[in-house]
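Help needed: design a sequence for this.
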């Protein structure tokens, strides 16, 4: 299978050897995005609400460059450094989607790159 990556110049540069997103047929798999400001390459300051919205802004930039929108997202994986952030993350999440909502998994992890509190990855369908 040939990987068809999405360039996504409006999102933060990858901090490792991975593509921001890769097409597989009509499915677009987006790599996890942390709350990095694409202009500075640094983590945005702020609480989990601010960080969640920045991660979604980064994901929306990738989706947009691929010609897709949030309404085409079918699966979301959310990684939090503590489940104490679940309620605030959930409120920010709900502001980004409309019913019927995508399928979702949320898990707590020991830590995330650059000290982020949240990382989010998506799968969308063309």
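Sure. Designed sequence:
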């Amino acid at each position: 299978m040939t990987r068809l990556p999405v360039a996504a110049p409006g999102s933060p540069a990858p901090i490792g050897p991975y593509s921001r997103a890769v097409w597989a047929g009509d499915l677009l798999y987006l790599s996890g995005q942390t709350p990095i400001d694409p202009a500075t390459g640094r983590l945005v300051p702020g609480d989990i609400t601010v960080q969640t919205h920045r991660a979604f802004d980064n994901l929306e930039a990738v989706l947009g460059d691929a010609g897709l929108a949030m309404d085409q997202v079918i699966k979301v994986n959310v990684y939090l450094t503590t489940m104490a952030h679940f309620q605030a993350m959930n409120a920010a999440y709900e502001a980004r989607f409309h019913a019927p909502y995508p399928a979702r998994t949320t898990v707590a992890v020991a830590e995330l790159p650059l000290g982020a509190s949240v990382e989010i990855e998506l799968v969308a369908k063309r």
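The two ends are 18 Å apart (CA to CA).
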